[in-house]
Amino acid sequence: MNALTITQMLALYTWFPLAALLMFLFLITRFYERFSGKRMYFRALLLPMILFAAATVRYISIDQFMGDVAADLFWISGGVLLTLHCAWIYRQMR
């Protein structure tokens, strides 16, 4: 078994706080849907989490922290989807 490199550890240390924040947003949205009666599509937040996880796994597998086209596309698409969904959630909660 190979030891983790610094690059791989940094990728993991960025993934876990991001996953925790996304899970917190997921739970807030689910709570709001249950008690407001509005449809919030909280399960759609799982897609950015999956895309961010795919980017992290890709970076760890190639032992690199930036500069990979596939992983960068996963990060960008996850970020765009998360931004759009958060903006939509914000508009629903106002």
Question: What features would you describe in this structure?
Answer:
It is a single chain. 19% of the residues are buried. The chain has three helices and no strands. The protein is mainly alpha-helical and 94 residues long. The longest helix is centred in the first third of the chain and has 31 residues, at 6-36. The mean pLDDT is 91.
Which helices and strands occur, and which strands form pairs?
Elements: H1 6-36, H2 46-62, H3 69-93
Helix pairs in contact: 1-2, 2-3
Low-pLDDT sequence parts: none
Cα-based radius of gyration, to the nearest Å: 15 Å
Helices and strands, in order, run as: HHH
- Secondary structure category: mainly alpha
Mean pLDDT: 91
What's the gist of this structure?
This protein is mostly helical.
How would you describe this structure in keywords?
94 residues, mainly alpha, single chain
